[in-house]
C-alpha cells in the first residue's frame, strides 16, 4: 500500500506497465506541443505581449503624458478642445506614440484611435501598481510605476472601450477606469 | 570485547512512548500525536475564520447583495487570503508532514520541544497577521504589492509565521533521519512519505523565497530601506506565493494515495512511476513564479515561456501521471475487492458513504478538470493576457486550493479524528453529505468565477457596476448572472464548511471513544487481510478500463479548452 514501504525492495527495477507508459508518452508529447506552440505563436500569431520596456522616473513619465495630451488633444467642430467627463480626448497620429498614464484613480487621458492603424502605446503608472484591463475585448496588462511598457497596438474593432483597473490600488480601486475610442 | 561509549548521547528512543493503533496497526508516538492534534486544531480554527471571511467576500461580490462597504470588503479580502491560503493550509500541512514521517514510519518525532517552538511561532504569526489586518492599516491584499504599504506588523507577522513553518519542516526532515537511524521501517520510505518529502523540499524553497522578499519589505515599512522594486518584488514574492501552492499539490496528492490505501486498500500501480512524478515536482514546480509575471513589463518572452511551462511542462506531466495512477490504483484495488463488472462498477460501488473517500475522489476529479486545465491555460504566455487579474484567476485557484487541496485535507481529517484523536465521527449522517455539499459549492464558485473572468470582470474589485467611476463602463448582463451564481454556490460551500467544522469539533470533544475495548469505526478502514492476495502493476496483467475512459475524457476536455482559448485570443486586437 501507499502507506507501507514498497513490497518489492527493488521497486525501481520493476518494468513500467504499458498503460502507464502510453499515458506518460502522451502527456510528454502534449507538454512539448504546448511549449512549442507558445514559441510558434510569436511567429504566426498577432497577439504577443511586447518585451519593450524602459525604466523611467514616474514624475518624468507624467510630464511626457501631459505634453503628449497637450500636443494632440482633439478639437471639436467648433474648434474647441474636446473633453469627456472632464478628461481631454487625445488623437495620436496613426503609427505614432500614444500614452496612457495610470494613477490613483484614473487612466488618463482618453485616446481616440483609428481602426486598423497601429500605435506605439506607452503604459506606466505615476504611483502604485495598476491593471490595464481593456473591455470588452479583454486585454489585461499589468502597469508598474517606474517601468514604461511599449505595446504596438492595432485596434481591429471600432466603438467605445472601457479600461477597468484590475490590480488592487487602494480604497478607490473600483472607481478607476479609463476610455479608448476607436473610429473607423 | 570492545565497548562503544554511548554515554554522551542519550538514547531518546527509550523515553519515547508509543501506542499501537488498533485499526491501522500504525505505531504512534505520544509527542507526534499531540503535535499533529494541535496543528490540525489550529488549522481548523483558521479555516473557520478565513472561510467566514470568504463568504463575506462572495456575498459582497454578488451585485444584488453587495453586503460589505468597500473599505470592509478589501480588508476582509486581505484577511481571507492570509487565513485560508496560508494559515489553514500550512498548519494542516505541518500536521500532514508529522503524520507522514512519525506516524507512517512508526518513529518518534525529532526534537518535540523545537516542534512546539515552531507551533508557537506559527500561532503568534497568524494571530498577529489577523490583528494587523483588522486594525485597518494593512489592507494591501494577501500579495501586498509595493509601493502600497502595510503596517510593519503585517510583514513581521508573516515572517514569524514563515520561520515557524520552516522550523517545523526541519522537524519533519529530522524525523526522517531518526526513523532511518532507529530502523523503524524496512527498505524505501512509503510512497505517501515520499510525496510528503517532496512537499517538504518545496516548502523550504518557498519559505526561503518568502524570507528573501518579506524581510527587506519589512525594513522598508520601518523606513530603513527607501525603495522596493515592484517587479523584483513580484518575481520573488511569487516564488513563495505560487510555489507554496505546489506544497499543497504535493501534500494533497500524497493524501489521495494515503486515503486510497487506507479506505479501499489501493497500492500504487508502479512505485517507480508515481515517485518519478513526485520527483518532477521537486525539479520543476518552483518555476511557477512566472505565472504571475506573464502580463508584466520588463521580463522577456523567453524567460516567461521557459518558466511558465515549468520547463516544457514537465511538472504538468507529473500531475497528469498522478491523474492516471491515483484513480488507476483505486480501480485496481476495487477490482481486487471484487467489483469487476463493466467499466465502472469499481467506481459506483466505491465507499461513497465514507466522507474520506468521497472527499478524496471529488478532490481528484475537480483538481484535474477545473483547477488543472484552467491552470495550464492561464499559465500559457499569450493566453494569460485574456485573463490576467480578472476573476478567472481566483476561479482557477479555488479549483485547485479549495476544491482540490481543502477538500482533500477535509477528507483526511475524517481519518485523523478517529486514528489520532481516538474519537469516532459523531454524526455520520452529516459527515456523509459534507464532502458533496462543500465540493459542489467549491466547484461552482470556481466555474462561475472563471465564467465571469472570461467576460472581463476584475478580481479584488468592490463594484462591477462601476457606479462612482470616472468613466462608466457596463459589463454584460451574463457577468452579473455569473457573480450571482458565484454567491449562491459560495453559500453552499460555506454550509459545507460549517458542517465540516461542526462534525470535527463535536467529534473531537464528544465523539464516541475509540480507545476502549471493542470499539468499532463508523467508517471502517480497508480490511488489511486482503492486502497481499495479488501482486499487480508490474506483470502486464493490469486492466483499468474505467480509468482509461476517465483519463480519455480529461484529455479531450483539456485539448478542446486549450484551443478554444487560442481561438478567442486570435480574435483580439493585435499587439506585439
Task: Give a written overview of the molecule.
The complex is a heterodimer of chains A (184) and B (576). With 184 residues, chain A is of the alpha+beta class. Chain A folds into 2 domains: 15-44; 53-183, Immunoglobulin-like (Sandwich). Chain A is built from 2 helices and 12 strands; from the N terminus they run αβαβββββββββββ. Chain A has helices at 18-44, 58-72; strands at residues 53-55, 83-84, 87-90, 97-103, 106-108, 110-114, 119-125, 130-135, 139-143, 147-154, 159-165, 177-183. In chain A, the strands form 2 sheets. In chain A, strands 2-3-6-12-11-8-9 form a 7-stranded mixed sheet, with helices on one face. Chain A has a 5-stranded mixed sheet with strand order 1-10-7-4-5, covered by helices on one side. With 576 residues, chain B is mainly α. Chain B has a domain at 337-464 and 473-515 and 543-576: Cytochrome c oxidase-like, subunit I domain (Cytochrome C Oxidase, Chain A), CATH 1.20.210. In chain B, strands 1-2 form a two-stranded antiparallel ribbon. In chain B, a hairpin with a 6-residue loop joins strand 1 and strand 2 (27-29). The radius of gyration of chain B is 24 Å and the shape is globular. At the A-B interface, helix 1, strand 8, strand 9, strand 10 and strand 11 of A face helix 3, helix 8, helix 9, helix 11 and helix 14 of B. Strand 10 of chain A pairs antiparallel with strand 3 of chain B.
Task: Tell me the number of strands of chain A.
Answer: 12
Largest sheet of chain A: 7 strands, mixed
**At the fourth CATH level, what is the homologous superfamily of the domain at 337-464 and 473-515 and 543-576 in chain B?**
Cytochrome c oxidase-like, subunit I domain
Q: What is the level-2 CATH architecture name of the domain at 337-464 and 473-515 and 543-576 in chain B?
A: Up-down Bundle
- Portion of residues within helices of chain B: 55-70%
Using the CA coordinates, give the radius of gyration of chain A: 24 Å
CATH class of the largest domain in chain A: Mainly Beta
Strand order of the largest sheet of chain B: 1-2
CATH third-tier fold name of the largest domain in chain A? Immunoglobulin-like
- Major pleated sheet of chain B: 2 strands, antiparallel
**Strand order within the widest sheet of chain A?**
2-3-6-12-11-8-9
Name the pair of protein chains with the most residues at their interface, and give those residue counts.
A-B, 93 and 108 residues
The protein's oligomeric status is: heterodimer
Distance between termini of chain A? 68 Å
Number of helical regions of chain B: 18
Average pLDDT for all residues of chain B? 92
Give the strand content of chain B: under 5%
Unreliable sequence segments of chain A: none
